Structure formats: C-alpha cells, structure tokens
Amino acid sequence: MSLQSFSKVQFDLLFENSRDLVYFMEKDGEDFRYIYLNKSSIEILSQKVVGKTIAEVMKPSDSETIAQNYHQAVVKKGQVSYQDYIYYLSEVKKYETTVIPIFDNNRTYVLAITKEIAFDRDLEDKYLFMRSVFFNSFLSTVLISNDGKLLEANPQFLEDFNVNIEEVRLKKLIDLPFISNQEQLEQYLNESFDGTHLTSKLLTFIDKNGNSRSFTATFSPLIQLEKVAAVFIILQEVTQLIEQEKELRTTSMGLSNFQYAINSVAEIIIMDPNCRILNVNDRFIQQMGYVKEELIGNTLEIINSRTHSKEFFDNIFSILHKGEVWRGEICNQTKNGAPYWADTTIIPFFDEDGAIKQYINVYYDISEKKRMLTELQNIEHMFKLITENTNDMIVITNEDGIILYVSKAYTNKLGFDEGELLGKFYTDILSPESKVKWNEEFSVDSDGEDLKIELIHQSKSGENFWTECNYTIVKDFLRNKGIQIIMVAREINDRKAIENQLSFLAYHDSLTQLPNRRYLQNEFPSIIESSNSNSESLAVLYVDGDNFKKVNDQFGHKVGDEFIIQFGKALSRSIRGNDLVVRMGGDEFAIILTGLHQEKISRKQQVKQIVDRINQNLKRGWLISNQMFAPTASIGISFYPDHGVSLENLLSHSDKALYGVKTTSKNNYNIYSPELL
C-alpha cells in the first residue's frame, strides 16, 4: 500500500480525538508541506494551513527550528524528539515534539506528534531546598545571598561549570565567567530578592567544555523573619525531563508536592513495598478508565496486560531493591482491555533507616508511538515485499558511491550474491565508459531533483547490458552535500539495439552498408584535426564507375544493385586501415586517404599505389548471376591543404578533376589543378 492512498478519513480515525497536536507533512525541497492536521492542531493553526509549507505559515525563526528537526529525522531515518515553547492565548506553554520519518517510493513524509509538558515547579522547588536534595541532586543547584553573592553550590553545579567552591564563594554570581547573559540573570535575581518565586526561566551558561547550554532556571526565595535571606536556583536542561524524576529517589517525604508538580505531565502511581496502590493522579484515572476506589488497595496485577514475562518483572525489582531507579517500556492494560504502553520510571523511596518505604511509578504514554511504529514496520515490510519482487533493479549508495542496499532483481541480473555487492563501489559493476560517465554526472550539483542516466552494467560473468537509471540524491541540509543516492534501474538492451540500428542507418548507405555523405560530414572535422596535429596531408578521391548505366540497362536493377555492392567492396579492399570509403550516391564513391606525406612527390607516389590497387581489384572482377564483371573507374583527386581546407572545397575540386578524366579517356585518374576551373 502506498502512502499516497493514506486518506484524511484514515488520519482522523487515528488522531482526530487526540489531545496532542498531530501533523502529517510531505517533504517539499528544503521545506515541509502540511497535508493533514488533527482537531487540536487546527485550533492553533487553522485549517487554512493545509497545502502550505512551514515557511509560509511560521515566522522565519520558528520555521527554521522546526524544519531543522524534521530534516534531522529524515537524515537519521529514525525518530527525533525535541522541546520548544509556544505563546498561545497569552500563555507560555512547553511542548515536546516527536518526529517520525516515513519514506514511500520517491516521496518523504513526516508524522509530528506534539505533547504539552507542564513546567510549573513551584511546589517542587520548595521541597528542593532541603539539604539532602541540594547535595545529592542530579541538577545543578546554587544558593545565592540577598546581595547576589554565591553562598553554596552542589557538586553537580561545580562539575558542570568547572569551578572550585572556595574560589567562587561570596563572589557575585553575575560576575562569574560561565555566565553568558548577565543582564537577564540580574533581572531574575532582583525579582526573587523582592520575594517573587520564578519558574522555568531560560538562561544560557558556558559549561566546563566551553559549550553553550540552555537551562530552565527556578528561583525560590528563602524567607526568614518575613525577609528574603537567600535565593535558591535550580538549573535543568530543557531536553532532560528525567532529571526531575531522578531527584525523587533521595527521599520519601513531600510526595504530594512532587505529584502536584508533575501531575499534568505524566500518569503517577504511588505504591507500598508490596506493590499495593496507595494513590494515583487524575491523569492515570483518565487514561486507564478506572475510578480511584477501584485502584487503591489493589496491586499492579489489576493493570497487568500479560504482555511481559515473570523474568521481566523479577529483573525490575532486583534493580529497585538495590535502591536504583528502573526505567523502560511497560505495557499495561486499561479497564476496557486496551493495551497502554508507557515509558516508565519507577523510583524507590527510603525511610530514615534506609528501608524502602514506597515506590513512585511515573508513566509517559507512548501507546500512540507504539501503534505508529507498528504501522511503520508494516509499511516497511510492504515496501520490502515490493522492492524484493519487482523487476526493477534498486540500489542505494552513500556519498562515496559505496553500495548500501541492492534488490534481488539486481543480484539476479548481475549474478552476484548480496554480500558480494554490499560495501563495494558502485562503479565496480559498470563498464569503463559508464564509470567515466557516472563520475562526470556527480561532478555537477543536482540540487536533489530526480534525474536520469543511461549506464552499461557488467555482470559477474562479464556480460554487458544497458540500463536506464532514475536516481535521487538525498542531501544533508547543513552541509548541502549528497549523503545517499537512491537509484532504480531498468534494462533497455532491446531499445538500445534499435537506437543503434537507427543510428547506423542514418550514417550508412542502406545498399552497401558503407558510410554515407552525412557520416563523412560528421567525421571530417576530426580527420582534419588529426592530420594537422600529425603534420600530415590527406587526399580526397572522387571515384565514378565507368559505363555503370549499361549494367543497369542490360541486366536490370537487381544485378545493378549487386554490382554497386561489389564495387564498394573492391574499393574497401584497396585502401589502408585508417582510410575511409564513402558512397556518395549512384555509382559515385569518395575515398579519404589519411596519413600522407606533405612532400608532393612522396604523397603522389602514396596515392598512385592505392589507385593501382583499386584498378587491380576492379580488374579481377566478380561474378553475378553467372555473369562476370570487371569494371573500370575514373578518379579525381584533391589534396588537403593544397586544394582546400573544407570538405566542400575538396569534394568540389576532386569532382572537377574527375570530370576531366570522364571527358577524355575514362579508366584513369587526375589530380586537381587550378586550370580545371
């Protein structure tokens, strides 16, 4: 099934009621064009964007960021996720977008699924003031005095920014070398010193490797005696939501605060050491279809989908009992029996004695992704079935021309095993002339359009066959350089044979199969060029059979035609390998003698030897219908460059020399001289 038949109805069945923003788009050059949008995305962008590109809909800064991530997924040929912020209805919202590339024949599509992520962490930040969290946090955290001086920093902060706490303590934070946007940071600090709690403020820092990294920063004022005594700053990389989860394992206290902070982000279960459910958040109830009373007090067996083995769960709890966080994919089951796939993090919480007191399970719904991946796998399987059973030969190479994939039609035609072709240079299976043609083809920038080329392939047995190849270069949009060449080839031996036959007929006499006047006109410039480069002369002989009309009149045209054929063969037997016999029409022939001396006496002797051979071969004659023919010929001769430098002049002057022979003696030859004018 081709994606071209993927309809709006099918798209709506999958995504219309999804609260996530879903876009189905087609790659259009360096941009992407909207094909289908679900209801949630139409509320933000409107139905009018269908058929338009990202660049036509978005601001340049936004469209460049989106297209860059889409291109990354296409080039990677795999799923890419990224996060960004959108201002909608005067509210800042944070989103995570998953981009899935889809390749269908010569077309490329992407499916983009955008999920809102809550980032109000006010209650969580208050809990993070605790010293145990401060020093064991996986996030960079720092405590700032109410006059802007650095009081304390956790080990993660010191490691990230390569500083020694003794060297920076009691120094102004905004003056430290790893701060790259001092004015913005100073503004946030001043607001915090006034008692304002700030969350998810974007800041840029320079880490220990000199790299610029963007963080969301939370500023929490520490109140003492109704005054701000200090400000606690937590830095979290925008793309690493899991850091939020890692901090949960440091304590079992304040679970309700953490639950509130991430309630709108994920589905949450809190359970005791025996996996009995203590509490669930609203998102989990909505997702699973239960009411809270049906879940609380039950074990996780109630949502077990029977997808995983006992060993799978044994492995999870062996990790948790060590006090470590487990993360992976689990398939649960909703109340109505539907599978619910989740990217799951399970975090153990300990009491003061170090014993596990509770677990918190954080689920991120990936059911849609799983369904989409299954669909993509089905499409990939279908594509493989098509490519493996088509007569067209399909090959994919990298930018260096090394074969990455070949279809069965290729291996069958070439006689190689697949392993003999993979990793081999594509030019190794081309004829020498096609290697040159192929390399010349890719010395010119093709801008990624679909192109066509005819190449000669060589099979393992040495057999040559012509192919017509349609190919596309998939480019790296950052380097603007081809990284893969996808080519579909079809054998065209029969067509090339017809083309060669037509070409032969266009440049050869149909009766004698000798070159004709058109052939001579086409080749003569190269003959002249060769003569000049070798400092040689050449001769043009105009040859006319004597009394040919009598042959036709006496014996008929059939015998006359055979006579002309044998006459041409006699001339061909008389010349050297580098000379040329051309039928001009009727019983008239032209002979081009090359490689002659420029010295006139020697040249004349060379020509006389060939004329003598012509007369001898004609005198031997030939038998046609039991009738012996031994004709004679009259010959006019002109020399290059003595009598002209163009073909027309040389033919005209040799024809005048021939006329002089025909009007006097026949069966003779004559060299052109100006007196013949």
UniProtKB/TrEMBL annotation:
SUPFAM superfamilies: Nucleotide cyclase, PYP-like sensor domain (PAS domain). It comes from the Bacteria. Residues 536-674 form the GGDEF domain. Residues 326-378 form the PAC domain. InterPro entries: Biofilm_reg_signaling (IPR052155), GGDEF_dom (IPR000160), Nucleotide_cyclase (IPR029787), PAC (IPR001610), PAS (IPR000014), PAS-assoc_C (IPR000700), PAS-like_dom_sf (IPR035965), Rev_trsase/Diguanyl_cyclase (IPR043128). It holds the Pfam family GGDEF. SMART domains: GGDEF, PAC, PAS. Gene3D superfamilies: 3.30.70.270, PAS domain. Residues 268-311, 379-435 form the PAS domain. This is Diguanylate cyclase with PAS/PAC sensor. It comes from Ureibacillus chungkukjangi.
